[in-house]
Every structure is written in structure tokens, then in C-alpha cells.
Fold:
Amino acid sequence: MTISRRTFGRIAAGLMAASGLVSVPALAQDMPAPFDNPEEVTIALVRYLSTGDFFQAYLSGVESQAEALGVDLRVLDSRQDAALQADMVDQAIALGVDGIIIQHGLTESMREAAQRAVDAGIKVVAFDVDVENEAIPQIEQSDRDLARLALEQAIADNGEEWTAAYVYVPGIAPLDRRDETWQEFKERYPGINEVAQFGTLDNPIANSNANQARSVLAANPDVTVVFAPYDEFAKGVKIAVDEAGMSSQIKIYSADVSTSDIAAMREPDSAWVATAATNPAVVGEVSVRALAMQLAGEDVGASVIVPPTLITQDMLLENEITNMEELSVRLPQFAHADVATPEWMPLPAR
Amino acid sequence: MTSQTRPETTSASPMDKNAIIDLAIRFGFLALLVGMVLFFSFASRGFASPQSAVFILQSVAITGILALGVTATLVVGGFDLSIGSVATTAMMAASYVMVVMEQSALVAVIVCLVIGAVVGVINGWLIVYMRVPDLLATLGMMFLLIGLQRIPTEGRSIATGMSLPDGTTAQGTFSEAFLALGRHRFDLIIPNFIPVSVVVLIVLAVLIWFFLEYTRFGRMMYAVGSNAQAARLAGAPVRAYKIWAYVISGVFASIGGILLAARLGRGDIASGNNLLLDSVAAALIGFAVLGAAKPNAFGTAMGALFVGILLQGLTMMNAPYYTQDFIKGFVLVIALVFTFALSQRGKQ
Structure:
């Protein structure tokens, strides 16, 4: 899938067409087997991570696309228990489901279980976990693109020379991928001077990072750009910047978005100027669509990438966007990704 | 209890050597604290300033308040594992009351304090009347609260303008008065200098210190903690004291949660486990301060400050996060060695 990487962000016209698609209800008779009898089709979502807004939204996307297709959805939630998640795949096999979405998890624990499902003739897709299986397509929100969009905006806003602080915790797969892009940018633009790196995942994450950011800003008062490629980090940095009274001097670039992030970005003189995000609900929808295509015997390729959207403070203010729903309505590229959408695919009503 | 630690009672070995060890135990930790401040002042630019003193205090304010609460339960020989989740539950409750129920800041604060007190009473009741061991009762409460705080919003964080489970959008906002708890700063020499949370920390620290050291109620709590049987035979209502300790701990934790919500400006889904661990560490480090070898409010406050200075100083020097966990653990172990080596000496 070489989807709209380059064209993305400027495809208003294409998006109008896409939102046009939304309103056309697909009838079950028009769909290829096995979706001519969708109520006979059962799919399972086997989750590793489930608590938090992102995962909640992802689930809602999975649910709405499954509903649009008319299939029966079973949700198996292992709550961060890797062994249990593998058992749940076996449970799904025993239930006789037709397709499985593996949502997160560990390669080591899921590889064998995923293979067993494939051996049982079940179609499988995996979101954000590499199960090292050629028969299983990867659904990805492109973390590299997320970081790239945010950093390109930072270059556009601040030129090629600035003093930066960077928030990062190694060992978390999406953050590691975002980090690769940051390292590339630093090589490409030697004018970027990273004077501090910090970050923690102690919860509440925003609070812990606010404490760290205060120290970093006190030690490095010349910082002008903070790259915080995770919204909880950015939220913490923003609190620290406000408390230090440095909001006119510092710009924060981040990844991910939520209603409260939008509120924080919209505050007067907010230092948080841009974020790049993939709509988790859309990722959920794409996961189900990719699985449905597999069930219908279509090839989706080795990976299905859901493209991110750049969201700037100016966009939010101009379009009077105050929450996620308005973001979806007024930035249609955020509400729908034209990925895994064959002719017959019914899309969730909006 | 304190008399055991005085040199007079352990004068079997030569006086001067003993006195030096005793001095080291009494003031070692405070000396370490001063040494650390000096080190960071030279090693890190921007550390030695009134502003950084204030933000170090601010960074430990919430864990400090929780730690003072848990100190009360430690005093009666108990333990409260639920404080972290009480704090995050209070944070969610405050957000829910304002954003979803559209109530005022005052209502939000009252609801939080009531939640803290009720949780404390339930904890105390489980431990005293149901005879559930303290660790288990409060562990159960911890899980219960982590789950409970998510039920009203179906697992979503609460923010202004969020969409509710029924599809509508929440109309309420965080009131300015409430946010001021997290953002207002009092003038002290420098304008806009001292954040509210630091003032709350200091006030609560002084209150609980005075309460535990100088009131009859506080001294009785120590008596219950050191020998509940003896206290009961002496006619003290041991059960009531224990329940009160958990109420204090619950209320303090909910105050921490209020300040957390005010600082973040939203209700974040969080287990609060890190808050729990940091505050317990502060209280345990507090055992070693001034050679007290027992839970005490002054020590707890110093313990929280110690951890705060260490972490903020390391952050300023760009130390990665895992070294911070390592050093936190190291300090705790050293403090516990101080404490238990000392209590061993007392017994001999």
C-alpha cells in the first residue's frame, strides 16, 4: 500500500469524494462472500492494551466498522497479560471465528499463537505488533510520518536553526519509531541543537513530565523548541512552560491528539502549536476493513498504513474546533482514511 | 521511644565513638541533603535560584501530601496502599463534577474530600472490624478505586468538551477558581512566586506534625502503633484511633488529587501507582531523618524534599529516567539501613 504519503494533507478534493462514499449504503447482497451473509461471519478482536482514550477510540472504530459490515464482533481483552493474550487467540480459534484482529502485544508471545490461527484457516491482521508472519498484514499508524509532519512544521515555523529539548522514553515501540525520524532530522538539519533530553512514563504522565520539564527549562533557558512526540509529554511540557512563564518563547510540537489536547492548544498564547495525529477510531475501522478484505479473498499487502494528519493551533482556531468530533467534521482528512476501501466495502455512518 | 536512641542508654562502648555514630545517624541525612544541594548548585546551571527551589517544592507537593497522609497510618502500625488511587479517583471525581455535572469548584472540592474520608472509613472498617490485614484491605481498595474511577466515563479521560458515552458533548468546564488551585501563585518577595500546592503542602505538614507530636490524640496514635494491646489495656479506644488514621490518609490523598486535577486541568485515567510508590518512599526515608526510626511528619516532609531535589537535580543534568529510578531506590535502601541499623542498636 503506497497510500497518499506525499499527497496527504492537501487532498481536500479527494476527501470530499471520500466523504461522499460514506453516504452510500452498501447492501449485503452487493458484498462478496462471505459478506453476502454477514451475520454468519464472526471476527474477534484480541487486545493487549485497552485502558486509555486511544484504545477506547480504537475499539469504537472497530465496533462501528464491524456494525457497518453487519458482522458479529467478539472482544477479548487480556489487559496487558501477554500469556493470556496468546491463550485468547486459542480461545478465538476454539470459538470458530472467521477472522482475528490482534491489537498490540509482544512478538514473542503472539508469534506462535498467530501461526496457530493461520494454520486453523483463520484470517488474521495485526495492529502495532509484529508477529513475524507473512500471512498476516500489519496495520500501522505511521509513527515515522507522525514525527515527520510535526518536525516539518517545526522547520517551517522556526527555520533550520534552533535550540531544542526532546522528550523521549526508549523501549516503547511507537516512541522508538518516532525517535528514528528525530535522529534523521537532526542529521539533515545540523542547525538543530538538542541541549536536553528527558521524559518519563510515571503516571500521571503529564504531571511527572511537567516536573521534569520545569527542571530542564530552568537549566536551559535558551530552548525555543520542544519536540514531545506523545501528547501526554506535550501536555506536561506545556504545564511547565506556563508555570515558568516562557510560553511566548517556546513552541511545542507533538504527536497524537485528544479533546483535552485541543483545549490546551487553543488556550491563549499556548506554546503548543502543532501536533500530528492519526485518528485511533479510523485505525480501528481500517483494521476491520483490512480483515474483511482478507476474508473476501482480496490482498491487502504486507502492511496497511493509516496516514496521519497535521493539526496546527491556527487550524483549530480558524475552524473553531474544540473537541474530537468537531475535528473529525471540520478536518475531514482526520475522520476518514481512504485506506482499504474497495467498492463493496460499507463504511460506518457519520 | 526516643530515649532508646540517646547515647546515655547505649553507653556500653566508649562514649565518644558512640556519640559520633549517634551524631551521624541523627544528622547524617540532613547533612546529605545539604551536600546534595551544594553539589547540584555547582554542577548544574540554574539550580541555585529561588525559582528552582519553588519548583522543586512544587514537584514534591502532591507526593508530599500523600506521604504525610500515609505517615498517619504508619504511626498506628498500619499501611495504606490505596492513597495513589484515592488521589486519582479524587482527580476524576473533581473533573466529573465540574465537566459533566456542571457544578462549581466548591462542590468539586467537597465531593473529593468526602470521597477521601469515606474511603478512609471503609479502609479502617475493613481492617478494624473485618480483621482484614491492612496491606490486603487497602490493596483491595486500590483495585476497586482504579476500576471505579473509570465506570462513569466508560474508561475515558475527562476534559472540557469531551463526548459522553451517550453521544452528547459535556457542557461543563473547569472553573477558574478550581484551576487557580493549580495555577495561582502567591507573591512572596518575588511576585507570582509560591504556587498554591506548595502552600497547601507546608500548611498540611505543619498541621500533621503538630497533631502527631503535640496533641494527646497524636501521641495516643503512636501508643496504638507501638503496642496496641497495651494501649487497649490502658483504656484507649484503639479501633477509633486506627480508623481515624485511615480517614486522615484518605483525606490527604484526596487533597493531593484535587491539586493534581487543578494542575492538569483535566481528569486523567491513571492508576496513581507511581504516586503511591513515591509517597511511601518519602515516608520511609523519613524514618531515618534525625534518627527517629519511626514514622514522623517532619521526616516525611524531608524525605519528600530529598527525593524531589535529587530527581530535579538529575533531570537538570540530563540524567536519563532509569537512573532516576535507580537512585530513588538506592536512597530508600540507604535510609532503611540507617533506620533499622539504628533500631537494632536501640534494642541491644
In short: The first strand of chain A starts at residue 42 and ends at 47. Chain A has two domains: 12-142+279-308, 143-277. The radius of gyration of chain A is 21 Å.
